[in-house]
Amino acid sequence: MSDQAHRTASDRETERGNDFDRARDQAQRMQIHSESGVLFEQAMAQTRMAICLADPNQEDQPIVFVNRAFRELTGYEEDEIVGRNCRFLQGPGTDPAQVRKLREAIASEDVVVVELLNYRKDGSTFWNALHLGPIYNEDGSVRYLFGSQWDVTDVHAARADEKHARMMEREISHRMKNMFAVISSIVTMTGKLDGAEGLAEKINARIRSLGRAHEAMLEVSFTEGPTDPRKLFEDLLTPYAPQGRDSLTLTGGKVPLDSNVVSVLALTLHELAINAVKHGAFAAQEGHVSLEWQVIDGSEGDGRLRLLWTETGGADPGPGPERHGVGMTIIGRMLAMGEGEIRYDWRAEGLHVDIQFPTSI
């Protein structure tokens, strides 16, 4: 669930609590000033909040009043409700611990709020945010138990979805780490058997880069819409930067990213960072890399992700071809397969790279 969704749910709960207090106070006043209960019944019948009154002074604390909203929420008629204890709405899925909280509150004359899984007349379920509190006589004795019910099934479902998403995130993260570890082990063993340990380490570095990229993206993988890739870029580039995060300037907002785009981004930035360590900005303590990103319109109006990589303050960049090794060839071919492109500009102050590719590959 997003922060806005959490705030909205919290605001709704606060509002409902205020409604409960106002309705209970109104019921208290009307009970005192109108023993006939006519005014109370008229007022309570009109509210959209489901309300019931129970008599704690009778055996088994039966319900003595319900309004229309209560009947509509539960599906029962008035003559099927009045005279029964409110537990008739409970069922096999109702949490006994929440029921105990209700009983304890009644015994101590406290106001309590609980969430119960309740059952309608047709057998369907709903999550009930039940507010329960006492209404007193003028002499201080308890006259009624006042209960208001709110259907919070949608809020409860959102919480369940969020919990499930987090569980899935942890499981995916665990499996992903295992997968990359297995691949890395295979590459390492193959390199030793073939006498190509150096090549194996280069491949493993690229695998580790992919692993960091996908690990960073798990935090937003269940979020719909554009994503802020700043953390992804930090995780990818900081290990190569001579002064860590201080050697980087990251500028850009949220952009659409799918898993294929993340893979291309990870390998592209990995190769650029490795080259910067060998020949460019990251080869000097004072070197700096600026990375900017944005979504631009393609020639036919299709969205394209554009990244501008700028190196300054590093080692002498030298002629372009010296920095155009296997890694950059890999980048070029990957981008070409995804209808992307890359342009290099070896300037005196450092390398400038312009990368563009579709937001979905």
Automatic annotation (TrEMBL):
Residues 1-28 are annotated as: Disordered. Residues 112-164 form the PAC domain. Residues 1-27 have a biased composition (Basic and acidic residues). Its EC number is 2.7.13.3. The keyword ATP-binding applies. Residues 63-109 form the PAS domain. NCBIfam families: PRK13559.1, sensory_box. This is histidine kinase.
